[in-house]
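// run 5 | inverse folding | seed 20
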């Protein structure tokens, strides 16, 4: 059941992203309509969902009993997100877990928010991705209004990198922490935890139980709180 639920959750995120972006590419809008900005935020959240789903694939939790399917679904997510090769992300992410908060941690940098963010992005983006995305952009604008591409394809993906970095890397790992994972967790608020970064603000819980998929991290949070209170 758990195996099937992981696949279902992955397909749900992929489907929602695809339906959303297809509809948004074909829609007209006014900059005076507040709904426009809500839709940008929704699309940003779905982009973040793609990456979080790919992250689950890196830990083998989408399809634990089917490695090929697990990899395929993860690669679909990273391709839709920004043409990332999943194998490279897998290698760097496990470096992060194995060498957290050290010079060998690709996600950690001793600097302010902006310098850290720049170095974080530099670890993962490649020139060939930028060129390939530029080619796709110029092909798509033959059929899709350019303002739609910018507002619903380019902007949400960029905002998503900020969302992932701020809630999933910067806040959990900045400063020193008195635990072996060198990470902290956000206060319990499951609605905000989901909206901010698919429960990834429960970051200590993720490092403590990396085999737990994003949609079950809140349960780990609950168990830890019960244990600590007990």
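// decoded
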């Amino acid at each position: 059941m758990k195996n099937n639920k992981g696949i279902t959750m992955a397909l749900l995120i992929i489907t929602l992203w695809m339906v959303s972006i297809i509809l948004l590419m074909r829609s007209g809008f006014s900059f005076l309509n507040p709904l426009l900005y809500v839709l940008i935020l929704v699309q940003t959240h779905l982009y973040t969902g793609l990456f979080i789903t790919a992250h689950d694939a890196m830990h083998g939790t989408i399809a634990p009993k089917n490695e090929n399917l697990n990899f395929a679904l993860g690669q679909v997510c990273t391709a839709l997100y920004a043409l990332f090769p999943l194998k490279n992300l897998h290698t760097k992410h496990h470096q992060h877990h194995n060498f957290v908060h050290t010079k060998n941690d690709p996600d950690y940098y001793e600097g302010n928010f902006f310098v850290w963010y720049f170095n974080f992005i530099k670890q993962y983006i490649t020139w060939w991705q930028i060129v390939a995305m530029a080619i796709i952009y110029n092909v798509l604008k033959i059929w899709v209004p350019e303002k739609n591409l910018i507002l619903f394809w380019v902007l949400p993906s960029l905002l998503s990198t900020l969302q992932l970095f701020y809630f999933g890397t910067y806040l959990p790992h900045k400063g020193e922490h008195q635990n072996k994972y060198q990470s902290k967790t956000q206060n319990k608020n499951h609605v905000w935890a989901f909206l901010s970064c698919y429960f990834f603000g429960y970051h200590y819980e993720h490092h403590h139980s990396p085999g737990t998929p994003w949609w079950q991290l809140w349960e780990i949070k609950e168990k830890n709180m019960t244990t600590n209170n007990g």
